[in-house]
Amino acid sequence: MENHPLALPVGTTLDRFIKLKQDDFDFATGELSQLLRDIALAGKIVNREISRSGLMNIEGAFGSQNVQGEEQQKLDVIANIRFKRALKYGGEVCAIVSEEDEGIIDLNNPNSKYIVAIDPLDGSSNIDVNVSIGTIFSIYHRISEPGGEVTMEDVLQPGINQVAAGYLLYGSSNMLVYTTGKGATGFTYEPSLGEYFLSHQKITAPEGGNIYSINEGSYLSFEKPMVQFVEWCKEQKLTARYIGSLVADFHRNMLKGGIYIYPKTEKSPNGKLRLLYECNALAFIMEQAGGKASDGHQRIMEIKPTELHQRVPFYVGSKALVEKAESFERDKAVDLA
Ligand code: P6P
Known about the structure:
Blueprint: H1 14-22, H2 31-51, E1 61-65, E2 71-73, H3 74-90, E3 93-98, E4 105-106, E5 114-122, E6 133-141, H4 152-155, E7 164-170, E8 174-179, E9 184-190, E10 195-200, E11 211-213, H5 224-235, E12 239-240, H6 246-256, E13 259-262, H7 275-288, E14 292-294, E15 314-317, H8 319-336
Helix pairs in contact: 1-2, 2-3, 5-8
6-O-phosphono-alpha-D-fructofuranose binds near residues 123, 125, 215, 244 and 246.
């Protein structure tokens, strides 16, 4: 094993890993490496603020709503500021799409070549009750020429164009998981040293699994295929696990085997989760781990976005479970044909 190219010594910091892996990229100029470091830095700061939020009077609602009409938590706003600031001053990103802002955020780095789509703090309703929450991000090359205006075409790219994607999980331990298309890798934060250390060298999602994660409170508004899939899960005696925090549910299911679904419901007729800064990033990571991600019919990463805050139904996890859920959707299509 020691000769295996991936067999790096335990104690490999994120910085060292990024540098070692930089050579995977032709013409790597270090800009993507620096961008990943900028995200990790902001993650350390946000992690610190989350871990002491109860002491700093930064829990609870901020008193405003985001573009989605969702009640912003104080830490939503703080995290948004932290990531925007880190990416602006890191100098590698020309524009951001954020869950917390309505339009494209131009960072006034006109010659930078990267675009970031980010959910600065997902699951924020769990902050005050100490449940794990997360940050989700996607990284793209801009399509327009550096130096010019950032365009809608730059930000409305399908997930297959992602250069990198990842999430930060602020949980019992704090992790950063990312991919650049060469596998999914996990790092665990050591607060006493202020470093992320390599802890999950090549994450692989089990082909099957016995966990299903869906909010069954919406069961009465599920469409028939979703009812059939949930019934199938019960017949198979699968375990129901739903934290109500996407990154935490996703991370557990990817490591242990399982499926997370946010389907169409009466309240969310297109699903609740956003394509640009939630689904695409997690789909990229799950595919790199050998799993699957779709909207019940088509691969998430092949959906061409039409709006910044576009919502899609989201089926993600172990390949066999996602395909089982899709089979019920297909049967419905056959019935309706
Ligand atoms: P519901 C949190 O708001 C979030 O975006 C995800 O983290 C989570 O999985 C989902 O919404 C929970 O939504 O409607 O089941 O409460």
